[in-house]
């Protein structure tokens, strides 16, 4: 496989950064790390380490050591390493999500290599390590203590397994891809994101062919096939999901209808029972009224009317 830096298109891009000093390059790397779409944790860790180095460089710049050729010449190599580091971090923002996913552990190794290379330039400058300046010594010790571990996130490893495994079903790969691309392209629909990914992958395929990197060409072609397959599976998958939603809605309506019907029958029985009770009470009331010939006022005017129709003897 070709050199890892070449895989990121570093050769052409580094030339465009010529003339930018170390402090500005570190600032550019920190900004790019904040907007990375892939390897976010690795980018943030790397940026944090470079901030410590920026503190050291600022301290050197403000001291009399800044004018010494023994300091300036070796630090020019640091500028080159920072330019390559910027390309690495920027790639995590701009390159194909699937490409970065497939290159996962290779990208992790590049972060480790970049940090070791940058730290090495500081160690090979004798005057920095022998400096009497307390602040410079403090900055150096902070850099030495900052040992970072770069890795591939567990979720990215799972997605990588599903996408790259030949035995994965088209539906499973499409489902996982839809979930992950929605995070990488929050302002795009799934089909548009697939198209963007395929265009970026085609560009990576051209670069790999130019380097005669057969292994990488095979991996990238596999990723292109995944995007094309997902584009054909997606409409059918949407139809299946829509049908499931319709069936679920229909079942809910049926359940609601059955519940309403049961409630109506229960209300009907309740109403019938209450009506019967009212009728029973009304009948008893009429019966009592039938047992008396007159009401209370009639009894007052004619006491003999207060006698029940059926005499009861005790």
From TrEMBL:
Main location: membrane
Gene Ontology molecular function, alphabetical: calcium channel activity
Record GO biological process: cell surface receptor signaling pathway
Alphabetized CDD domains for the sequence: MLKL_NTD
Cross-referenced Pfam families: MCAfunc
Subcellular localization, as worded in the UniProt entry: Membrane
InterPro entries named among the record's database cross-references: Adaptor_Cbl_N_dom_sf (IPR036537), MCAfunc (IPR045766), MLKL-like_MCAfunc (IPR059179)
Domain MCAfunc residues, every copy: 25-167
Source organism superkingdom: Eukaryota
Bilayer topology term: Single-pass membrane protein
Record's keyword terms, sorted: Membrane, Transmembrane, Transmembrane helix
GO terms under cellular component: membrane
Protein name according to UniProt: PLAC8 motif-containing protein
């Amino acid at each position: 496989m070709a050199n890892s830096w070449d895989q990121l298109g570093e050769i052409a891009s580094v030339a465009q950064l010529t003339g930018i000093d170390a402090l500005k390059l570190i600032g550019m790397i920190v900004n790019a790390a904040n907007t990375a779409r892939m390897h976010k944790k690795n980018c943030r860790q790397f940026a944090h380490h470079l901030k410590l180095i920026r503190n050291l460089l600022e301290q050197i710049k403000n001291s009399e050591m800044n004018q010494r050729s023994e300091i300036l010449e070796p630090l020019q190599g640091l500028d080159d390493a920072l330019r390559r580091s910027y390309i690495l971090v920027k790639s995590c923002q701009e390159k194909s999500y699937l490409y970065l996913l497939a290159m996962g552990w290779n990208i992790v190794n590049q972060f480790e290599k970049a940090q070791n290379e940058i730290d090495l330039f500081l160690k090979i400058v004798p005057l920095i390590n022998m400096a009497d300046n307390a602040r410079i010594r403090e900055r150096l010790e902070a850099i030495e203590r900052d040992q970072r571990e770069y890795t591939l996130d567990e979720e990215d490893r799972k997605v990588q397994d599903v996408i790259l495994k030949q035995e994965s079903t088209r539906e499973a790969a499409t489902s996982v891809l839809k979930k992950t691309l929605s995070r990488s392209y929050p302002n795009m629909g799934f089909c548009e994101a697939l198209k963007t990914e395929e265009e970026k992958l085609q560009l990576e395929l051209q670069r790999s062919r130019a380097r005669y990197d057969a292994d990488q060409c095979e991996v990238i072609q596999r990723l292109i096939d995944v995007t094309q397959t997902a584009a054909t599976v997606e409409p059918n998958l949407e139809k299946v999901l829509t049908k499931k939603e319709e069936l679920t809605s229909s079942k809910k309506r049926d359940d609601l209808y059955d519940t309403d019907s049961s409630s109506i029958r229960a209300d009907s029985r309740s109403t019938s029972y209450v009506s019967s009770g009212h009728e029973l009470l009304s009948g008893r009331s009429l019966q009592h009224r039938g047992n008396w010939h007159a009401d209370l006022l009639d009894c007052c005017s004619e006491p003999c009317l207060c006698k029940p129709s059926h005499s009861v003897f005790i």
